[in-house]
Amino acid sequence: MSERVAVLGAGTMGHGIAQVAAQSGFETILFDVTEDLAGRGAERVLANLEAGVKRGKVTPEARDATLSRLTTSHDLAAAVAGCALVVEAAPERIDVKRQIFETISAAAPDTAILATNTSSLSVTEIAACAKGPERVVGMHFFNPPYVLKLLEIVRAQQTSDATVEKVRAIGERLGREMIVVSDSPGFATSRLGLVIGLEAMRMLQEGVGSVLDIDRAMELGYRHPMGPLALTDLVGLDVRLDIAEYLHRELGGEQFRAPTILRKLVRAGKLGRKTGEGFYRWDASGVREPAL
Question: Could you report the per-residue pLDDT of 147-184, keeping only the tens digit for each?
């Protein structure tokens, strides 16, 4: 089996997935549509590793070995050639993902597993446009992948048993804790997490509690490592809005209807940590204070 992994998309999730793959011993290619974007992703991996060294979580030798296994590319066909696994981490747009899978299923080896990191979109629909749809699967990592160990394996209608078993073996090597779910809008994690997040926004909107108190209720009362409003800032308010609209369209139900406060913040460009402000204000080091 090839030891090569390609990660498509060098953004928030993609660079983290590439880091995990390279740290786990895979020769890893980080692709994005321009050389600059791919390079920025690699720089973020370096910054993560340097921070790990400073905290004593990563040895200098492990940092150097990880970086030696990581390369970048802006040539999609070249990036996936010879790979055992291709993980797509492009924006959450079904048309974009379908086009990517149509391209990579023709360019990658016939034996390659083709995985999407989508957090909510139909893996079955993505697989439908691929050559060899039985090898298409959801591999939903969590942000940041080099800290959070959960891997949600999403089985499309076309996904074969052999593909699921191969992904389980890869997940073990990546140091993941795994769950396997059937393809359904929002899967298990995004569907549950979104409902909590949207309800926290409605509570804030109705004056039930402050940003800090609502988050502390879940952190201290239910041992969540991060409250739902802070987590929304980390995920991105625009991403949460897109998922809410998709689930409301697919499943109905008032629990998936996006609150007014979320729509207003997105319209104002306050998208969370990536823009410096959402429900919190964030500084460059990740320290936050309530913004509302």
Answer: 899 999 999 999 999 999 999 999 999 999 999 999 99
The yes/no answer on whether domain 4-182 falls in CATH 3.40.50.720 is yes
Domains 4-182 and 189-278 share a fold: no
Would you list the domain boundaries of the chain? 4-182, 189-278
The architecture of the domain spanning 189-278 is: Orthogonal Bundle (1.10)
Of the candidates 180, 195, 204, which has an alpha carbon nearest to the alpha carbon of residue 251?
A: 195
Q: Please list, in sequence order, all residues whose beta carbon lies within 8 angstroms of the beta carbon of residue 190, skipping any fewer than 6 positions away.
A: 119, 120, 140, 243, 247
pLDDT digits (tens, 9 = 90+) for 212-265: 999 999 999 999 989 999 999 998 999 999 999 999 999 999 999 999 999 999
To the question of pTM greater than 0.85 for the whole model, the response is yes
